[in-house]
Amino acid sequence: MRRTAAVLVALLACGLAGAAWAQEAVPAAPDAVQRELQAIEDLLVRAIAEFDGAQQSRSIVILDEIITRLESLRRDRTLPPRGREVLAQAYELRGRAYYNIGLQEKAADSFRSLIQLQPQYALSKDKVSPKIVDYFNSVKTALVGYLAVSSQPAGAKVTLNGEFLSLTDFFPLEILAGDYTVEIAREGYRTESRPVSIAPKATETLEVTLTRTSASAFLVTEPPGVEIWMDGALAVTTAGTLAPDFAAAVREKGLDPARASARTEIGGLSLGSHAIELRKKCHELVRKTVDFSEARDYDLEPVKMEESLASLSLRSEPPGAKIYLDGEAAGVTPKDLEGVCSGKHRVEVKHASGKFLQDVVLERNESLTLDCPIRPSLAFLGVVAESAGGERVAAEVQETLVRNLAKITSLNFVPAPRETVDRILEADRLARKGLLPGSGTDPDLIRKLTEKMAAALEVQGFLLAVLPEERLQRTAALHLLAAGNTVTDRFDVAFNEAASYLRFLSVVDQRAALYHPWTGIITVDTLLHEGVPVLRVAAASPGAEAGLQPGEVIDAADGHPIKQTAELLALVEAKKPKDKIALHVKGAGAARAVEVVLGQTPQEIPLNDPALLYNKVMMDLRQQVEGYPGTEAAAFARLNLAVCAMHFGDFAAAHEHLLKARTELPQRPGISQGTALYYLGLALERLGYKKEAGEAYRAAAAAKDATLFDNDGPAVAPLAARRAGS
Amino acid sequence: MLLAAGLLRAQSTSPEEQARGLLEDGRTYRREGKLKQALDNFNTIVTGFANTDSVDDALLEIGRYQMEVEGNADKAREAFEVVTKRYPQSDGAPGAYYYLGLLTLDRAHSAADLDDALAQFTRVQRLYPRSEWVSRALYGTALAHRKAGRLPETVEAARRVALEYPSSEIAPAAQFQIGHALALMGEPRPAMEEFQRIRNRFPTSEWAPRALDRITALYRLYGGAKPVFALDPAFTAASGDVLKDVRAILMTPARVLWIASDKVKGVVPVGADGKVGAILNGADLQGLSLGPAGELVVAARMAVRVGPRDIRSFSVPTDKPGLTEPLAKIEAAVVTAGGLTLIADEKRRRVCRFDAKGQFQGPFPDAKERQIVRMAVDGEGGIAVLDRDQKTVQVYDEAGQLLRSVAARGAGWELKRPTDVAVDPFRNTYVADEEGFVYVFSPSGQLLASISGEVRKPRALTIDPAGAILVYDEKLERILRYR
After folding, report:
1. Which of A171, A358, A490, A628 has the highest CB neighbour count under 10 A?
2. Could you report the predicted ipTM of this complex, rounded to two decimals?
3. Domains and CATH numbers, chain A
């Protein structure tokens, strides 16, 4: 048993070696042949078991079947190298089995077949009975002669009747006796062909001088690793180090021999003119034209490659994003990258809140500054059809959708790899439709899965298209879902109408305004005044700092007459924080000019606005929260995230956001901690925590100057006090 | 050929699609004012496409038609109830509950009725929290609370609409309710801010000009250290005999000034543009007021005219069982929000109360004799009565409960010969006194402002939508405007 196994291992090793030997000629076996070979190998295992068993002769029947099936493949010329090894092994085992039961003639037949298959096959006395080895060798001697081939130059490929044998020069190899045509071929030389007759036990020797038909060029570059492209095709890459013999010549040409490559051959060059390009990353391209008029070796002028570098400055909003240059990590923003190779690069700037992606081409010595606005990424999960009709057009619709939705500018729109999405969803036995409203899927599961997919795909939201059951399939319901949220926003598009996409794009690319320029001056319209009287000036507001007083009447701003509050607000809205607005004010005394330096007021997202895609808003808000942690902007964004969660009835998520917003928001007049406390009360109330809700309301009621909606909005205190008491 | 093509088209659409088409066309007709055509479409859906998804919407539209066009509350209720009972899961169901709430609210005269209305609105919020009707239901809740006099609850419910559904159609109306309720709660400055929000956020809404009026009225009273009423020298209204022997004047919300002149034996409308309209004839005119639907109520000596055509006479029982006697010395008349007609009778020195069918219901507020010469209703269910003998103004609710009053005298005023009374939307009371004064009193009866000087002998007064006071001066035979 052990002995046969050892033989098998040896044969397998031999087979592998054989495969390597003839690797150029190994086509991939078709599936049917592979299956047949696998079945035969299974038979071989059984045959070996019988061979090693008490009645070795029982293996012969199995080995016969193996041989018959493999010879059939061999006749069809579909026998792979591994099959040849198995066949050889089967012949060997059958020969030995016959020998062991005294049927020497039959054993000789098997060994003959074996030798005809593999003339170099040998049995070792260490592993097989010496008597059998001797018998095998006696059969082999009668069948095999020897062939040795050498060529000038060496390294030529030798084939025997078209089958590859070896590279020159080689010592005598065992060859089945017979007549052959030997071909000796080498690139750049004419192929030589010789007839040869091999007699048993005799040795034939061929010595061939090859005639050159093409030129070779030799080149040294500094540094090594330069790709040499001949006539548009990569010929070779310089490598190694320069041999001392050539150092002087190379130094003379201005190269540093210590940094130069070995003398690298470009062989097989046809005679005539050739265009050569020398390419190396981060180096200037070198172009040459050379003429080879004779089939001989040429030494080309050594080439010193000039470095070609540029610099790249990357800034991002938010900062602190990871930079990847051609997939390689290159620090975090803001960052100045010096010594960047010129040429084309893919710049990726990744942040938890989104990413920036752009291909750039850098010229030598160029300094490029790239502002990298981080945008959330939206993964397209594909099209789901609700009817057979829909399924028929789904692929076509998907293509149309991808083409049109790629025009989204506020998000990176990326088709999601199907297998990644399937793997994540299938792990929880969920189909894509399970993410949609009305599917009955546990919201917590949707939350978990979207977060998982978001991490895997490096995105912040998802888009799934549904083709509803329609007589004429023309509508696609686009479902937008922010990672971590549980309810989609739906937007229907007529998938063949360009205008329909434009409507969607205008909504999805809309950015919710979170801040507005602000004066803190509350004026009213009356029929009593030429202008707008100041009703109230918010504490610590720009208006208060400018000294505006209730009762004064603003009748002009920036030179424009003001007849109603909307006109004043429009002028303010058109400005930016820190801009100034010049007011003309009439009061009890003389008219006066007042300059107000504008501040800004945060603004809440409306709880229910049909014009908003709340999931998109949530993606934008998360970007603020994750992009600018610890800032007031992040705190306001978190408050708005809570409002969005409440929009979807997700009071648990709102509660989580509000707990953080409560501590992160400033304590001051306007949108502030009191605002968060009021909403916290609402969320707790909806979650059924009456006592805790009451506490939150009471705390909100104590925040006297806190407001809702914006800094000029309704006061929180009375609303909270009322709810605290109810 | 065309017919064949039409048939082919018809056959190629499903009943669902046909019903949907009828519904959309019907709604278009409604928007264009082709109400009968719209109703035909909706009825066709109910009868011909009863199993389609559009039937609940069609029933809702039919109910709206009955409620808003025909004024047939019963038929409207019937249609809405079909939706709530047969199609409770449909998207029309919350709408039906909302309209049922409105119908109930409209007829609510008791706390139980108001609770019923509230229950319908609450049902929408509870059962259909993501429905488009929630904003309207919240607004309905605010209205129900206001009708019940629960002003903080009104603010809370309306505030939810303004904050949670700022883009809804109902948001400006809700914002208006916030301002109004705050003003009634005695918080005029926050009220002005809330009214101004309508102008800032919904400048094209029908509520924006109304908000401007309210802000103006509030600012005049509360914007400065003290109220300021200044004579508008440029103001003129009507001329000639119309301004002779004027018994009453009344400004409507549409800014039409009605002048009841005994000289011309009729009531003359003067538009905002100064143009005089068609006269409503009538002799022995006594007073003018506005009914709950905005209709003009003209009190004459022997009859009351409600709206353009409805002329009613009233009788009260005599001491002899079964015998009645017509009222022939009417001094004033008002129609309340609950549909009661109150008539001040000079002969009996009482205010008589009649139901919507004209049946005598008893004295108002009680059997005590009073010489009531003028009455006015406020927007909150209060009825102000001017007692000439006692020289007081008292405000009662419809049930006769005293709500507030203006005393005959106090710090800075004395009513000597009061002739007319008016009430503004904020429940401030305005009294004209023949001795040459017009007084403005807060709801608590405190004097806010008094006007004298140019006005010589005030006989009648009214308040315009922006809170300006219009006074008819009998001596000058002209109407003065204090803005």
Report:
1. A628
2. 0.92
3. 2-142 (1.25.40), 145-209 (2.60.40.1120), 215-304 (2.60.40), 309-373 (2.60.40.10), 377-508 (3.40.50), 515-602 (2.30.42.10), 614-725 (1.25.40.10)
